[in-house]
Amino acid sequence: MYDTRINLNVSTGCCSIANAGKSDRGDYVLYFYGTDRKKRLATQATIWVIDPVCVTNISARHNGENVSVSVSYSGEEATVVWAWNGGALPERHQLSDSNKTLTVPSTDTGTFTVLVSNPVSHSSAHYNLTLTEAELQSQTGMIIGIITGFLLLILIACLVVYWIVKKKRQKMNSPMYSLPMGNILT
């Protein structure tokens, strides 16, 4: 079974099995024969064969104000790490499902990178999150609403100032403030 796949480097003592699979897991004992032709124990080891990881899919699901980006992968004993625009994730980004799902505000656009790794391999994928047309229109509408509200506030302030000035002028022109033009002594 191992005759064609086993390789022993006599100078280093390193033994390897080519194309190892899960069926190769187990306890191994390596013996050698000394110059006296006696069988001697060289080493014992328990070998675990781990499948390499491979990202198979990365997808996003919009749910209201948030977007959930999820990764699917093959392999085992994997560690999943996410990055946003090449840097660490801020606290507002939430990880769940053993770090397979990342939930972010839909306004946090940019490139999300996932790195899946195990002791024998690593695999990564990118997801580019952009604002949808509806979100762009919503943000544009919000900006227009804020500007319109600000302009209305300025208009109301101008009308109040105009009304106050007009009232003061009317008061100044009322008969109570006029002097009689009668006999002036000279």
UniProtKB/TrEMBL annotation:
**Entry keywords, A to Z:** Disulfide bond, Glycoprotein, Immunoglobulin domain, Membrane, Signal, Transmembrane, Transmembrane helix
Record's InterPro entries?
Ig-like_dom (IPR007110), Ig-like_dom_sf (IPR036179), Ig-like_fold (IPR013783), IgSF_CEA-related (IPR052598)
Q: Which residues cross the membrane?
A: 142-165
Ig-like domain location: 52-132
What PROSITE patterns would the database entry show? IG_LIKE
Q: Which domain of life does the protein's organism represent?
A: Eukaryota
Q: What is this protein called?
A: Uncharacterized protein LOC101732785
Query: What gene, per UniProt, encodes this protein?
Result: LOC101732785
